Hints:
Layout: E1 2-19, E2 22-34, E3 44-50, H1 57-60, E4 67-77, E5 82-91
Antiparallel strand pairs: 1-2, 1-4, 2-3, 4-5
Amino acid sequence: xxxxxxxxxxxxxxxxxxxxxxxxxxxxxxxxxxxxxxxxxxxxxxxxxxxxxxxxxxxxxxxxxxxxxxxxxxxxxxxxxxxxxxxxxxxxxxxxxxxxxx
Length: 102
């Protein structure tokens, strides 16, 4: 099942290289997530999502976190557990470029 969600991106990073002979290539995105309120918990945390290859970093590198975006997500299951995958991330506004009118 695929769905869209308005989110706040709190951080992001790209990683590419090789470790112990195995290549890796990904962009990690940290999205604001409400903490289930309870008797002894409250606040907002960030959940880490892998968003494709490190080249996706270029799509959002001009945005200073935190920033609003629309996340396209997909829920998948192995029959027992449900996992949410970040399929795409569309920033809400164009980044402000220094020296240009806002």
